[in-house]
Amino acid sequence: MKAVRSQHIAGMPQLAYTGLSENWLLKTCGDLHWRQLAAGAGLAMPDFRDREGNPVYAAFTAVRVRDAALDRIREHGEFTLDSHMVPAGGVKRLSRHVVASPDGARRATVTMLSTFIRRARERDNRSVVRAMPTVAANWTDVAPSGEATSLSQAARHFRGGEWGIHLGLRQEQDRACHAVSYLPCPYNDFNGADLLYFASFQAMVDRAEWQWRGHADPPTVFERDLFFHGNVNVGEALELTFSALREDETGLAHWCEIRRAADGEKIADVVTRKRARQR
Predict the structure, then answer these.
(1) Whether 176 contacts 243, CB under 8 Å
(2) pLDDT tens for residues 69-103?
(3) What are the residues facing 223 on neighbouring strands?
(4) Gap between the Cα atoms of 29 and 16, Å rounded
(5) Per-residue pLDDT of the chain (279 residues; tens, 9 = 90+)
(6) DSSP codes joined into one string, 242-272
(7) For residues 219 and 279, what is the distance between their CA atoms, to the nearest angstrom?
(8) How far is 259 from 144, CA to CA, in rounded Å?
(9) Domains with residue ranges and CATH for the chain
(10) Interatomic CA distance for residues 231 and 259, integer angstroms
(11) CA–CA–CA angle 131, 31, 15 (5° rounding)
(12) How far apart are the C-alpha atoms of 19 and 112, rounded to whole Å?
């Protein structure tokens, strides 16, 4: 699919204390991914259905942020988002979104891998299963790219708790154990499909990190991987466990496992690396 460029100016909705808001960026890239899926399927609106007419949604299985310098984008700063989508095997799609300043300097790359899902039981997010939209019959089945395969494999390793070394973290040597309870809010954490929104995972990990560690000068995200394994219903609590941590004068890195409190089912892994802000 042809790359799409969008122009932006950093105002209050786009900014956070540490520069361009990662949360805003993920939401914006997610929307671009959703709209490009519709365009690639020949739909005027991203209204996907299965053969029975049930609504089908694109769900992210992995999101990757790399080479982030979001602190370099400040108030009134102009920047572009170049978005490109490619097949990733079956109904999966992979999109890449590059943030750049007017001088061409890259400020972040966001990579997103999605598949299609539906609920097996109405209004029960625990019953989410893979789905086949009717438009998929017109898609050419292309073997997944190396990046899509790598993201899927990493998700499997983290879901099983066996990953070794990742983003400078060493699973065995950098062990930690700090748990935080979190009750997702229906007004802020769930999306219009009544699912716990993918961008809420990043936000809840940052909130838990801030309450635990705190910093006189908050660092900014440099790299982050989010792997999604499940979902949760409104009213169900989560437990966020920081199972690995590495921190020094240059920044910090951590691995957070997110589980449903009621049954202990892991629904996500979030691996984060942050560095000191540039002045």
Answers:
(1) yes
(2) 999 999 999 999 999 999 898 889 999 999 999 99
(3) 273
(4) 17
(5) 778 999 999 999 999 999 999 999 999 999 999 999 999 888 888 899 999 999 999 999 999 999 999 999 999 999 999 999 998 988 899 999 999 999 999 999 999 999 999 999 989 999 999 998 988 766 666 778 888 899 999 999 999 999 999 999 999 999 999 999 999 999 999 999 999 999 999 999 999 999 999 888 899 999 999 999 999 999 999 999 999 999 988 899 999 999 999 999 999 999 999 998 876
(6) EEEEEEETTEEEEEEEEEETTT--EEEEEEE
(7) 12
(8) 29
(9) 4-275 (3.10.129.10)
(10) 9
(11) 145
(12) 22
Residue type, 162: E
Report pLDDT for 254.
Answer: 97
Alpha-carbon distances of 103 from 70, 85, 170, rounded to whole Å: 15, 24, 37
**Confidence (pLDDT) at 138:** 63
Please say whether the dihedral angle defined by the alpha carbons of residues 33, 35, 41 and 47, taken in this order, is positive or negative: positive
**Rounded CA gap, 195 and 130, in Å?**
15
Q: Name the residue among 99, 94, 90, 106 with its Cα closest to residue 150.
A: 94
The continuous run of DSSP H or E covering 60 comes out as strand 55-66
Contacts for 214-219 with beta carbons within 8 Å, 24 or more apart? 217/276, 217/277, 218/17, 218/18, 218/277, 219/18, 219/251, 219/252, 219/274, 219/275, 219/276, 219/277
Residues in the chain: 279
CA contacts within 13 A on the Cβ side of 227: 20
What b/e sequence results for 224-255 when a residue is b if at least 16 CB atoms lie within 10 Å of its CB, and e otherwise? bbbbbbbbbbeebebbbbbbbbbeeeebbbbb
For residue 241, give the amino acid letter.
Answer: T
Render 66-124 in DSSP notation, one character per residue: ES--GGG--TT-EEEEEEEEEE-STT-EEEEEEEE-TT--EEEEEEEEEEEEEESSTT-
